[in-house]
Description:
By secondary structure, the chain is mostly helical. The chain has six helices and two strands. It has one domain.
Amino acid sequence: MPVRALTDLPAREQWLVRALRDWCEGPDGQARVWTALAGTLGAARARTVLAEFETTLSILLGQGRRRFCRHSAGCPCAGLDETLLAHFVTIASSENEEDALLMAMLLVPADRMWPLVSSARRLGLEIGRMTMQGSNLKSLVPSGAPISRMHH
Length: 152
């Protein structure tokens, strides 16, 4: 279900949605995410960001309470689950630990809540560091399929 235009999301949330979509496209999309990160951040820093990204997705997609829905790489919409993931990472990396736990309770079984919040917090903090250090998140957007102008 489309929630809003992808371009209406804050930069960090746009990056998360686009990286999620590319990552889920398979090895080629995963390579695009890695190349975009490593090209801007360097290999060591990119590995750190990618490790937290992979851990967060692994828990959410592999152990979630229900099937996670996403739009295709070129879709201009931000879907409900995609928007929720991006917002969850933002909340987890803020001072609102209770809100992050509440959201995690709806996403994953109880035994996976803390690992999900912890990895999402580290991912959000790494993305925050990228912006504070002057990285343009738009340059980190994987260069997969172009954004389609078609609507659902």
